[in-house]
Amino acid sequence: MDLSIWAAKFFGSVVGVLISMVMVAPKNTRNGAYRILLAPIAGVIFAPAAQSVLWFLQGSTIEHHMAASCFTGFSCWFILEFTARMLSSEEWLRRLLEEVLRLRGDKGGGDGPATGK
Prior knowledge:
By secondary structure, the chain is mainly alpha-helical. The chain has helices spanning about 5-25, 30-55, 60-90, 90-105. Helix 2 (about 30-55) packs across helix 3.
């Protein structure tokens, strides 16, 4: 593959990450560093998959590769950021744990949460 296509994919994914930082600012410096390091790499890797799924990104020109990697750079950030914010939220984790315990308690056929006896 031509080096210009790889450069276009990397540049497009960096632009996607920068757009994501403008849309929703990172919570802290570490979060921003993760975004800058991981999302461009994911954008380059997953750009061909985005091109095969979305018809308007299909094509072999540099512009198509750049648009696909921009889309995937932004999308990969969104998935990573959403997961990170959910896992760092104590309230979300508490609700998830309560739901898991409720479901495990209902498996025993009882009418309430498990008592541990």
